[in-house]
Amino acid sequence: MEHMTETHRHLLQFIMKEGYLSKKKLNDTLDNYKVQHEYKGRDRVDEDFTRTINNAIGPMHLAIKAMVHPRSKDIYFAIINEQDDEISKLATQYNAHEVQLFKQILNAIVENENSSITTTDAVNLRDNKSMNIEETEKVLNSFAKDGWIEKKKDEVWFGIRTLLELRMYLLNEFEVDTQDL
């Protein structure tokens, strides 16, 4: 079993900073770190490379997971919290109204046979007392920037972070397996 190197640690920190990354961007980053740290190990991020990191972060109930994006077919990586407890549910940068909006968006996407909703529908899911339209649009843009949803033209669907990080939630709450999307 390979031990964590400085390159592993730097790559782990980069994934934590970015939230999620495509395999191409991760490999480009690995190439840069290899030159910077004279790392002679693996040429590409592969199962052995991520397994080494996962062995180190596993005791903290974290893991690097990969998934093929259902639309672009690119491979993406993210760090997943594998412990579903009350503390992890509180670990978010979003306030309670924004989290509620996000849950309503997830529900609406699941209920739609196209696995997407319009941007207008997403905005209309807000609690009118807590968010106006402009604030809601900013939150939607933040969700998109952070990879929780994807927006293209007037369509909103699950983002890669939702598919990776909330797989068990979607399976338990809605009986939706993200692998089937």
UniProtKB/TrEMBL annotation:
Write out the similarity annotation. Answer: Belongs to the NSE1 family.
Which example biological process does GO assign this protein? double-strand break repair via homologous recombination
Compartment(s):
Nucleus
GO CC, one annotated term? nucleus
The record's listing under InterPro entries reads: Nse1, WH-like_DNA-bd_sf
Subunit structure, as described in the record:
Component of the Smc5-Smc6 complex.
The domain of life for this entry's organism is Eukaryota
**Membrane spanning residue stretches:** none
Task: Give the EC number.
Answer: 2.3.2.27
**Full protein name:** Non-structural maintenance of chromosomes element 1 homolog
Q: Which Gene3D superfamilies match?
A: 3.90.1150.220, Winged helix-like DNA-binding domain superfamily/Winged helix DNA-binding domain
Q: Which reaction does it catalyse?
A: S-ubiquitinyl-[E2 ubiquitin-conjugating enzyme]-L-cysteine + [acceptor protein]-L-lysine = [E2 ubiquitin-conjugating enzyme]-L-cysteine + N(6)-ubiquitinyl-[acceptor protein]-L-lysine
State the Gene Ontology terms under molecular function.
Answer: ubiquitin protein ligase activity; zinc ion binding
Keyword line: DNA damage, DNA recombination, DNA repair, Metal-binding, Nucleus, Transferase, Ubl conjugation pathway, Zinc, Zinc-finger
